[in-house]
Amino acid sequence: MTEKTGITLTINGRDHAIRVEPRRTLADAIREDCGQTGTHIGCEHGICGACTVIVDGEPVRSCLMFAVQAAGKIIRTVEGLADGDRLHPMQEAFMQHHGLQCGFCTPGFLMLAVGVLEREPNISDDDLLDVLSSNLCRCTGYQNIVKAVRAAAAEMRGK
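Above: the chain's sequence. Below: its structure in token form.
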């Protein structure tokens, strides 16, 4: 049996002191050890993007990162987007533009788009499409996801 390591994950401003095996993924630790189940696990190979969270300002596939690597870093999950009852502009835009159907991929798209737009608010349309193409959706056909992200980008820039 592998020895467990004590770490603290700071998720959405709250510290979670947990004990994990060194090989435990950040996705599993977030969901199972910290109770933040909004982060979804899809392929477990870094391809689908459903598990995307923001770590120290960068969108990352949490299935490809070990929990011990995230100790001491600032982690944001989909649960941390809203401010109380006020949804984040990206969440509002996904609702208004019908950017989701089954919703499984939605947390990953939200975190990817927010992470990229916070770093690069004036990202070109081509670059934005390139970024969004890295996450997979089996339901929507992407058109409404792109509309939602474009609308939220304008809102986040203050237009």
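Helices lie at 26-33, 67-70, 89-96, 106-119, 125-132, 143-156.
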